[in-house]
Design brief:
- The chain has about 400 residues and is of the alpha/beta class.
- The protein has one domain: Alpha-Beta Barrel (TIM Barrel).
- The chain is built from 15 helices and ten strands.
- The chain is globular.
- It starts with a strand and ends in a 5-residue tail after the last helix.
């Protein structure tokens, strides 16, 4: 019999929930050919390190790298050291450097592994004395480090640039300078303010139409140095409209965690590839769906991903920037790590009610790979919150 748990609800009542008993999604494995499917992945904290978890960082390297190998085995690519790995929310550039070096070195030992790493301006604290030249230097240092490891670059949005830029021309200047120097095409990431409020007004305007035009101008001017653009605005119409205006050589990587099947599946005018934090949570389903698409089975692709959408919308619910807690919680439930602890103590960023609903939605999406183990682990969390049985 499937296990039954008592779960708290938003109205402060308790309800019994019996797991569905359905078999978990199992992807076929092997390379994915019709799309690039990148999962922006989390880091596993070391729960036994004698540190102040709100001030210091300790990473369990075996579990962190092991999870990346798990994704490679399903044909998924890995986006490393991005916001899902808590860049800007607990993981400083000093720790990100080691993460990038270890991940790039490990990926080189795995046939077919595809990895790209986030380059940002982490150590540059926004303030009145920070200049455009400072931002350029910070980007140069980060990009140079990744390239020195033999890695590919994802050019992340900069809080410092958002704070000191006077207008669109400063973004054109900074991105132009960096793109002229990189050795290989990069992925540009436009992270919306729902993910990071400090990035409001990025590209020099709070008007998204004007901001879009600035980014499009950069893409047109530097297409040879741009592999693609990741859009994390949760705005499907804007993504599709931008995609249609890109040069043919430039990919659109969807960051729409609210409706990724539509943009990845595409239409007669094109499709988006994927670079998604939710792919960390739904990796088996993402892999299975993309393999279905490889075989021309659009209906199968849609059928596999449909039950993951309520889960994704819940995990990325407001305040969206705390979605990382749900990502790590999923890894804990599925046995990819032995604990529910996070860098910076961020495991406390979501309520037990929120996590209980995530547990139910993961079950309904057939994403609990060992339901009995997941139920036992959920029960431990509930007991800590004072929920019996």
């Amino acid at each position: 019999m499937p296990p039954t748990l008592t779960l708290p609800r938003a109205d402060r009542t308790l309800a019994r929930y019996t797991l569905s008993g359905q078999s978990p999604v199992v992807p076929p494995g092997g390379p994915i050919t019709s799309r690039v499917g990148m999962a922006a992945v989390h880091v596993v904290a070391d729960p036994l390190a004698c540190i102040d978890p709100t001030l210091d960082v300790a990473i369990d390297w075996d579990a962190t790298l092991g999870y990346r190998r798990y994704l490679y085995g399903m044909g998924l690519a890995v986006a490393e050291a991005m916001d899902t790995a808590q860049r800007g929310m607990g993981l400083p550039w000093s720790a990100a450097k080691e993460l990038i070096a270890r991940s790039v070195a490990d990926a080189k030992t795995i046939p077919g592994a595809v990895l790209a790493s986030g380059a940002g301006t982490d150590d540059l604290v926004p303030g009145p004395r920070v200049t455009i030249a400072d931002v350029e230097a910070a980007y140069e240092e980060s990009c140079g480090y990744i390239e020195a490891q033999g890695g590919r670059i994802i050019l992340m949005a900069s809080r410092a640039l958002a704070a000191c830029a006077k207008g669109p021309e400063d973004y054109v200047k900074v991105y132009g300078r960096i793109l002229e120097q990189v050795k290989a095409p990069v992925i540009i990431h436009w992270l919306g303010e729902m993910f990071d409020p400090a990035l409001a007004g990025y590209w020099g305007s709070h008007d998204l139409d004007r901001a879009t035009e600035t980014l499009l101008a950069i893409v047109q001017d530097h297409a040879a140095k741009i592999d693609g653009v990741k859009i994390s605005l949760l705005d499907q119409r804007r993504e599709i409209a931008m995609r249609r205006r890109f040069p043919k050589s430039v990919r659109m990587y969807t960051g729409d965690d609210f409706d990724y099947p539509t943009t990845i599946g595409g239409d007669g005018a094109g499709h988006s590839d994927a670079l998604l934090g939710i792919f960390d949570v739904i990796a088996p389903a993402a892999s299975a769906a993309l393999h279905a698409l490889d075989g021309g089975d659009r209906a199968g692709f849609d059928r596999i991903l449909a039950p993951t959408l309520p889960l994704s919308r819940h995990v990325f619910g407001a305040p969206t920037r705390f979605y990382k807690t749900g990502v790590v919680f999923a890894a804990y439930l599925n046995g990819h790590q032995t604990h529910f602890r996070m860098v910076g103590g961020l495991e406390s960023a979501r309520s037990v009610v929120h996590l209980s609903e995530q547990f139910v939605l993961m079950d309904r999406a057939a994403l609990l790979r060992d339901p009995q183990m997941a139920a036992e682990r959920m029960g431990r969390l509930l007991a800590l919150a004072g929920v019996a049985g």
